[in-house]
Design brief:
This protein is of the alpha+beta class. The chain contains 15 helices and 16 strands. The strands form 3 sheets. The chain has an 8-stranded mixed β-sheet, with helices on both faces. It has a 5-stranded mixed β-sheet with strand order 13-12-14-15-16, sandwiched between helices. Histidyl-adenosine monophosphate (HAM) binds next to β6, β10, β11 and α11.
């Protein structure tokens, strides 16, 4: 009797061909602007000591209070699958003394993250991000650079229907002054116990309450933007002027609340117009107290996380994925065993020269093999039979046009390179 099929855990995002090609293309497009700006790769564990996130991300957040995958390891330690990347990066920077060298420390990362959210389109329990962190300098020019890198990534994919929302959470003094007024305002509201508890840890979180009555109540609440100290205001003005200079458009959103508690100063979100409820394709900001909170020196930082899954959905929704980008360059159809060996040899050589080459395996009849060539999206095909082996001449056929040219085997790589990368 057939056994029950094992299924993937609920709510995870998975990529397999052909869609994994899109995923990989989007991922590299998002990373490239960071590499061009001198950010270097950091690879970190996907599980960390739970305390890293309770302290780093904040207990008032949904992420920490209800969405973490936390378990005890065999040594009885409390471990959590990383719900985000920034806390881990700062932990590693402190631990490896990277912050004792040249500043800013500029790092990029990419990989899976885990949040036990209610799954829906664009919201997964395992999802993927590309992120960067610039640590150690509190200069508004870095804020603008970080935002510009995220924007360049989305532009490189071809996205157009998104907006950049921007605000400032100010410095500690700005937030303290605002907090006093906000708490006064909140005391005048009728709130349930859970909301009061949340407001105690971080009153800003009430701006993010999705309930209609809370939205209405909070519409008159004092805004942090109106309590910025002159220095915070000046820094924010500089960030905006640098963005203007780079031609990057933004919308001010003084009610923006990020889902993580470590933010200070410049904060931002990229919102896509065609993605419905899960429209945040990326976000980030400054986190000037995080390193100290995690036991390191008092250094500032700023970064972003871009959702690769949502960027893929956005690219599909806008129909901007390049056609023909993923095709195989050459498909070889060997007829018979001797020709198969020669095919392997040719493919091996072509691949070493950067030409994407596939072979029709399994002794298929010519018709079936041609169909396979078509399915792989190959641009060219050659058939290798005894005759071709003897003369060392093949017919290089372009699949789309059906046109073919005779090419000697020794010239094959050069001929392909001429047409593939003129
Ligand atoms: P975040 O806004 O929580 O920020 O996540 C960044 C992006 O990850 C979101 O804009 C979204 O595109 C994607 N994302 C988040 N949760 C999910 C999910 N359940 N399913 C699919 N995509 C999701 C951070 O994580 C910060 N660490 C960013 C940062 C870096 N801030 C400073 N440095």
């Amino acid at each position: 009797m057939a056994k029950n099929k094992i299924q993937a855990p609920k709510g995870v995002s998975e990529y397999f061909p052909p869609r994994s090609r899109t995923f990989e293309w989007v991922r590299s497009a998002l990373i490239k602007p960071a590499v061009l700006a001198g950010y270097e790769l950091i690879e970190l564990p996907v599980f960390e000591d739970t305390e890293l996130f309770t302290r780093g991300v904040g207990e008032s957040t949904d992420v920490v209070s209800k969405e973490m995958y936390t378990f005890q390891d065999r040594g009885g330690r409390s471990i959590t699958l990383r719900p985000e990347g920034t806390a881990g990066v700062i932990r590693a920077v402190i631990e490896s003394n990277l912050d004792r060298g040249q500043l800013p420390v500029k790092l990029w990362y990419s990989g899976p993250f885990f949040r036990a959210e209610r799954p829906q389109a664009g919201r997964y329990r395992q999802f993927y991000q590309v992120g960067i962190e610039a640590i150690g300098l509190d200069d508004p020019a870095i804020d603008a650079e970080v935002i510009a890198i995220a924007d360049a990534g989305f532009k490189a994919i071809g996205l157009k229907k998104y907006r950049l929302e921007l605000t400032s959470l100010g410095d500690a003094q700005s937030r303290a002054a605002h907090r006093v007024e906000l708490l006064k305002f909140i005391q005048g509201l009728q709130l349930d116990e859970a909301t009061v508890a949340r407001a105690k840890i971080n009153p800003l979180r009430l701006f993010d309450d999705k309930r209609d009555e809370m939205k209405a109540a909070m519409s008159k609440a004092p805004l942090l933007m109106d309590y910025l100290t002159p220095k915070s205001r000046e820094d924010f003005e500089s960030v905006k002027s640098y963005l203007d200079a780079m031609g990057i458009k933004y919308l001010l959103n003084p009610k923006m609340v990020r889902g993580l508690d470590y933010y200070t100063g410049t904060t931002f979100e990229f919102v896509h117009e065609l993605l419905g409820a899960q429209s945040g394709i990326g976000g980030g900001g400054r986190y000037n107290g995080l390193m100290e909170e995690l036991g390191g020196q008092s250094l500032s930082g700023i970064g972003f996380g871009l959702g690769i899954d949502r960027a893929v959905l956005a690219a599909e929704a806008e129909g901007v994925l390049p056609q023909g980008y993923f095709v195989c360059d050459l498909f070889i159809i060997p007829l018979g065993n001797k020709c198969k060996s020669k095919s392997l040899e040719i493919a091996h050589q072509l691949r070493s020269q950067g030409i994407v080459t596939q072979i029709a395996y399994g002794d298929r009849a010519l018709k079936g093999a041609m169909k396979a060539a078509d399915k792989t999206g190959s641009r060219f095909v050659i058939v290798l039979g005894d005759n071709e082996l003897a003369t060392e001449i093949v017919e290089l056929k372009e699949m789309k046009t059906g046109q073919s040219t005779s090419v000697t085997l020794s010239d094959l790589a050069q001929s392909l390179k001429r047409v593939l990368r003129p």
